[in-house]
From TrEMBL, chains A, E:
<dbReference type="Pfam" id="PF00005">
    <property type="entry name" value="ABC_tran"/>
</dbReference>
<dbReference type="GO" id="GO:0005886">
    <property type="term" value="C:plasma membrane"/>
</dbReference>
<dbReference type="GO" id="GO:0016887">
    <property type="term" value="F:ATP hydrolysis activity"/>
</dbReference>
<feature type="domain" description="ABC transporter">
    <location>
        <begin position="5"/>
        <end position="249"/>
    </location>
</feature>
<dbReference type="InterPro" id="IPR030679">
    <property type="entry name" value="ABC_ATPase_HisP-typ"/>
</dbReference>
<dbReference type="InterPro" id="IPR027417">
    <property type="entry name" value="P-loop_NTPase"/>
</dbReference>
<protein>
    <submittedName>
        <fullName>Amino acid ABC transporter ATP-binding protein</fullName>
    </submittedName>
</protein>
UniProtKB/TrEMBL annotation, chain C:
<keyword id="KW-0813">Transport</keyword>
<dbReference type="InterPro" id="IPR035906">
    <property type="entry name" value="MetI-like_sf"/>
</dbReference>
<feature type="transmembrane region" description="Helical">
    <location>
        <begin position="59"/>
        <end position="83"/>
    </location>
</feature>
<feature type="domain" description="ABC transmembrane type-1">
    <location>
        <begin position="21"/>
        <end position="209"/>
    </location>
</feature>
<dbReference type="GO" id="GO:0043190">
    <property type="term" value="C:ATP-binding cassette (ABC) transporter complex"/>
</dbReference>
<dbReference type="GO" id="GO:0022857">
    <property type="term" value="F:transmembrane transporter activity"/>
</dbReference>
<keyword id="KW-0029">Amino-acid transport</keyword>
Automatic annotation (TrEMBL), chain D:
<dbReference type="InterPro" id="IPR043429">
    <property type="entry name" value="ArtM/GltK/GlnP/TcyL/YhdX-like"/>
</dbReference>
<dbReference type="Pfam" id="PF00528">
    <property type="entry name" value="BPD_transp_1"/>
</dbReference>
<feature type="transmembrane region" description="Helical">
    <location>
        <begin position="90"/>
        <end position="109"/>
    </location>
</feature>
<dbReference type="InterPro" id="IPR000515">
    <property type="entry name" value="MetI-like"/>
</dbReference>
<dbReference type="InterPro" id="IPR035906">
    <property type="entry name" value="MetI-like_sf"/>
</dbReference>
<keyword id="KW-0812">Transmembrane</keyword>
<feature type="transmembrane region" description="Helical">
    <location>
        <begin position="188"/>
        <end position="209"/>
    </location>
</feature>
Length: 254, 252, 224, 221, 254
């Protein structure tokens, strides 16, 4: 089975500061991978590289076997053009911590925008598909509401529908629940969990350790721009090898 | 008896304004202008010395009150003669016949009044804003466009920037502009809307009025014509027609 | 274009231009100073006044701000004469600009005062200050800081609005320029010159405002 | 004061007053439309990557904001013919007002652009929109909505500034007010009526804009 | 011993809504009283009545034996004048949840303002006294800082110094720590605790149950505008009588 996501020797620098110092990992089809680690360890940056929201300056990221962001021209890495970038971005679906719904559009239009403008789908068909996904995340009844009329949890569920409706090869979640009121966290986690159970390939950055343990096939622990340890959740959470991970797990709440 | 009072005093007191060239305005602290020169002509007649005159600055609505309260001996301030005013003060003989004329830029597309008139609605005339402004212009140029501006300044700017083909304004002002900008403007050669400017004195003083009238008439038609004509030329840029010998034409 | 003629004319008319600029300064300064004092009173009345104080102040602000400045200038000039006030053009113009400035300052101050948190008023009360003291020591000094940059923008507006006095015959910079133009017909050059002078004045004021705005440590806004 | 008010001679002239207001509104509308387009270009230029473009945009804004509008009007009307550009009075006034408006609108739009969160742009990128489409479907609509209140204030300012058209003989409300004034000498009444008409118009514009804002402006989520 | 604070049959209404429905309680000299209760039960309103920040429409509040806010004129309750109100307010010291420091003044000036303008103290003497109290709350070193240059906990300590420097008969604290970051709560509680130990009379509205238990002489439990139960903390926390208090204590964290 070829992996959906393959990251090889990924390096990323902000000015002087090297934030990713050589990352290697893969995500197989249908696999759910959680990335955990202390604040500032580079989790968000890694995820944003997968979606090309950040450029990276060394290493490769392959999505569905296709190297993204760069191609080789006469042995040189060349940043690909804007249309290509846009197309490659649509191969992954991103869910942000701050939801980032388009505030001037209804929930439905948030979902159909990409379908009609990027996929070029006719509107009736886009609406049908959007309705399907809004239903799946339990937001069909609110399809005509503006984001400002929705709670945080509801907004995040619309954001998930928006991303997944584009049929990405892999869904990326960056702390999808940490901007939510505690009583809203559950509904979003539930939505993610049910997508996972249906076999959606996913990469989650999360601080919800219990959730990461329950839902993931693999957990990746990052430490200062490197992967310090990775493996199945049972092993990582019950028998952490590195002292860093042991310390990290001690301070995290389950 | 004003005449005696003036002679005893040794100085004539003339009420006039300070901000309306070429009639009366201030230049180096001196009141000058055509109205001022009329004062000098009267002083010449009284004392044989044109400098024995004092000008009292008054606003135009103070012209009649100042006469009635004897603050001034005479008002010479571009005063239009009307029957209504003549019921309150005594007017002297007119010393200028004001009217409206058309000023154009030299070398403009239209040579003179006839050309303007022939151009019909193709021309624009700039005029000071006034209720009657449009009607007044249309008496002379029935089809012209009329642009009304808020100040004298803007009218001339309109003409100079060729926003307007002609300016309709008082003949005296027109002449003053032409004189001060020699070679720039031309007179379209048509004037209308005549009215007379005269000095005014307090009523019920026939001897004083007679004296002033005689002095003015002799300045316009008699021995003092030189003085009147020089002033006229200085302020209006042209000499008035010289009196003819023989039959006194003004009596015709 | 004959630039030597233009420069000669500038030199010939330098006294008039300076005088016009001085009048522009004078009338703007009068309007800003007196208008600010009046505006502070109005701003306080609108923000903290009881009904009989607040309403007239609000009405004043809305009426003056709803009227074009040119109309204000003309109305002040003609109406003051009609009701027997013997103002000359300069006085009428200065009055009109003052009224205009006061409405601006009133509105600016209202905005500034209302942006201050209620909690500070309560804290002042809690230590036993009367409203008088709270206003003097707590609200007003802060409102001044907030309002200063906008107030300086208002000063620029006053200088710009002073050009409208040319219409009623105040020989400020613009009318002076027009008078010069009526003698030498250099319309474009002299309007350009006037524009440059106005720009320099306004730009200078604006920069001073920026400078002060940066220097003042802005109190952090809180909405508790 | 025992002044006897008599509004009849002024109100008799209502067709003139009305046409004056109508022209004023029209001038303001056309000017803000042109000014907005120009302002939008300047606003984008002020955030362009090119340093040169940016300083050009700021110079544009700074110059026009610091010039009295009357000087701009007179310069265009009386000064430009000297360079052979002789627009008629209404066009010339509209050009002046549009230029003036463009500086203010540029500032408004700049603020509007800054108010669009970067996260929304990224969300657009994440679903595969190109940058042009992100501008068109996300940045501009949100910016316009955020800019609406400031836009309204500017429109009212411009409407008031149309009174200056009277100085170059454009027959709008102030022009007619002066004319009626010199005809009737009902000084107080004339200016009362004129101010009132302006105030009422400004208020009406405010109401219309408020209604628009209510429908369009985005509440904070 | 006459009580410092005596509240009798206090009623307070906001429009239609009756928020305080007859409150009776006393605070003796040197006593520390904590007021606890669910959100909306009227704790803040009660405290604000003691400081005259709210008017009340029935009942009496006596501070040091003096009825505050009203006097009787021909048998009628009449609101007293502004100067009188100001004087009576200075008898109590209030510490707010949001600190409410004057942002344009240094810490020192925040404290001296009331001393010079209300007490009419000469400045040198006011500065001396302010320094004393700033030292007591551990803020002497920051006396010349503006509030914006201080952390929340530091601001609150200055606010305490500002209130106590006026030598009030009683200090009122309205959730003095709930706007603070968790790691800052301790320093403020410590300051309050040490004032309590020195015999300052205090009324605290707080959600910090453990602190209320440790520091108070008496705890008042409010429920829907009434005092449902009051007594020494040991009894109230260990053997709550009313089922309401039992339920409330169950959901509160210690
Ligand atoms: N745009 C940027 N410019 C400069 N430095 C950045 C930028 N974005 C992130 N960083 C730095 O990169 C490092 C990694 O940041 P990142 O957001 O990836 O961490 P994280 O693991 O997601 O942390 P958290 O759990 O707090 O979200 C941090 O030191 C951060 O300060
Ligand atoms: N200014 C006001 N106007 C109207 N109602 C008010 C006002 N202030 C408070 N209330 C209402 O009075 C009731 C009691 O409020 P109060 O703030 O005293 O409660 P609290 O016990 O302090 O609650 P919390 O623990 O949330 O601070 C609430 O229902 C509140 O909505
Ligand atoms: Mg992160
Ligand atoms: Mg409370």
């Amino acid at each position: 089975m070829t992996p959906i996501v393959e990251v090889r020797d990924l390096h990323k620098r902000f000015g002087e500061l090297e934030v990713l110092k050589g990352i290697d990992f893969t995500v197989a089809e249908g696999e759910v991978v959680s990335i955990i680690g202390a604040s500032g360890s580079g989790k968000t940056t890694l995820l944003r590289c997968l979606n090309l929201l950040e450029e990276f300056h060394r290493g490769d990221v392959l999505i569905g076997g296709e190297a993204i962001g760069y191609h080789l021209r006469r042995g040189q890495r060349v940043r690909i053009g804007e249309r290509e970038v846009a197309r490659q971005r649509a191969m992954t679906g991103m869910v942000f911590q701050a939801f980032n719904l388009f505030p001037h559009m209804s929930a439905l239009d948030n979902v159909t925008l990409g379908l009609t403008k990027v996929r070029g789908m006719p509107r009736p068909q886009a609406v049908e598909l959007a309705d399907h996904w809004l239903d799946r995340v339990g937001m069909l009844k609110r399809r005509d509401h503006r984001p400002s009329q929705l709670s945080g949890g509801q907004q995040q569920r619309v954001a998930i529908a928006r991303a997944i409706a584009m049929s990405p090869k892999v869904m990326l979640f960056d702390e999808a629940t940490s901007a939510l009121d505690p009583e809203r966290v559950g509904e979003v986690l539930e939505t993610i969990r049910s997508l996972a159970q249906e076999g959606m390939t996913m990469v989650l950055v999360t601080h919800e350790m219990r959730f990461a343990r329950d839902v993931s096939d693999k957990v990746v622990f990052m430490e200062d721009g490197r992967i310090a340890e990775q493996g199945p959740p049972q092993r990582l959470f019950l028998n952490p090898e590195s002292p860093r991970l042991q310390a990290f797990l001690k301070t995290s709440s389950f | 008896d004003t005449l005696q009072t003036v002679l005893d005093r040794g100085e004539l007191i003339v009420g006039t304004g300070s901000s309306n060239p070429p009639w009366h305005f201030t230049d180096n602290g001196q009141t000058v202008g055509f109205d001022a020169d009329i004062g000098h002509i009267l002083a010449q007649g009284l004392f044989n010395d044109p400098s024995k005159v004092r000008f009292v600055n008054q606003s135009s609505d103070a012209r009649i009150p100042n006469l009635l309260t004897n603050k001034v001996d005479i008002s010479c301030q571009g005063m239009t003669v009307t029957a209504a005013r003549a019921q309150q003060v005594a007017f002297t003989v007119p010393y200028y016949r004001e009217g409206v004329g058309l000023l154009m830029l030299k070398g403009s597309d239209y040579a003179d009044y006839d050309a303007l008139k022939a151009a019909g609605s193709d021309i624009t005339v700039a005029v000071l804003q006034n209720v009657y402004a449009e009607e007044m212009v249309h008496q002379a140029l029935p089809e012209a466009e009329v642009d009304q501006y808020e100040s004298q300044n803007l009218i001339y700017q309109a003409l100079n920037s060729r926003r307007a083909n002609a300016v309709a304004t008082d003949l005296s002002t027109l002449k003053w502009y032409m004189k001060n900008n020699a070679g720039r403007y031309i007179d379209a050669g048509y004037s209308w809307n005549p009215q007379s400017y005269a000095c005014a004195v307090s009523p019920d003083d026939q001897r004083w009025l007679n004296f002033v009238n005689t002095t003015l008439e002799e300045a316009m038609y008699g021995v003092e014509f030189q003085r009147y004509a020089d002033a006229f030329e200085q302020w209006f840029g042209e000499r008035p027609p010289a009196p003819q010998t023989g039959f006194p034409a003004e009596m015709r | 274009m004959d630039w030597t003629y233009f420069f000669n004319e500038v030199v010939n008319n330098r006294d008039a231009l300076l005088h016009g600029t001085a009048i522009t300064f004078a009338v703007s300064l009068i309007a800003i100073l007196t208008g600010t004092v009046l505006g502070i009173v109005i701003g306080i009345a609108v923000t903290y006044g009881n009904k009989p104080l607040r309403w007239p102040a609000r009405l004043y602000i809305d009426i003056i701000r709803g009227t074009p400045v040119l109309v204000l200038v003309l109305a002040t000039f003609y109406v003051s004469a009609a009701v027997g006030l013997n103002f000359n053009a300069f006085q009428a113009g200065a009055l009109a600009l003052t009224l205009f400035c006061a409405s601006h300052v009133g509105e600016i101050l209202r905005g500034a005062l209302q942006s201050l948190s209620r909690g500070q008023i309560e804290a002042g009360r809690a230590i036993g200050l009367t409203f008088d003291g709270i206003f003097r020591y707590i609200l007003f000094p802060q409102a001044l800081r907030y309002a200063l940059p906008t107030w300086i923008t208002a000063a620029v507006e006053m200088v710009k609005a002073s050009t409208l006095l040319s219409v009623i015959g105040v020989a400020e910079l613009l009318l002076t320029t027009q008078q010069i133009i009526s003698n030498n017909f250099l319309n474009m050059q002299f309007y350009l010159l006037a524009g440059v002078i106005y720009f320099l004045i306004d730009f200078a004021i604006e920069q001073v405002g920026r400078f002060i705005g940066r220097r003042l440590d802005q109190p952090t806004r809180r909405t508790v | 004061m025992n002044y006897h008010f008599n509004f009849a001679p002024i109100l008799e002239q209502w067709p003139l007053l009305l046409s004056g207001i109508g022209l004023g509104l029209l001038l303001a509308l056309v000017s803000i439309a042109i000014g907005s387009v120009l302002g939008l270009v300047v606003a984008f230029a002020s955030r362009a990557p090119s340093r040169w473009l940016r300083s050009l945009a700021f110079t544009w804004i700074s110059i026009l904001r610091n010039l009295p509008i009357l000087v701009i009007v007179l310069f265009l009307f009386f000064g430009m013919p000297q360079l052979g550009l002789s627009l008629d009075k209404i066009t010339s006034f509209v050009v002046a007002l549009s230029l003036y408006a463009s500086a203010y609108m540029a500032e408004v739009f700049r603020g509007g652009l800054l108010s669009v969160p970067q996260g929304l742009v990224e969300a657009g990128q994440a679903i595969g929109l190109t940058s042009l489409r992100i501008k068109r479907y996300i940045v501009l609509p949100i910016m316009f909505r955020n800019a609406l209140p400031a836009f309204g204030n500017n429109f009212i300012s411009l409407f008031k500034d149309t009174s200056l058209a009277a100085t170059i003989a454009v027959p709008e409300l102030t022009f007619y007010a002066r004319k009626i004034n010199s005809e009737t000498f009902r000084v107080i009444e004339v200016w009362l009526v004129a101010s009132l008409l302006y105030i009422v118009c400004c208020y009406a514009i405010t109401l219309v804009l408020r209604a628009m804002e209510k429908r369009l402006v985005l509440e904070k989520a």
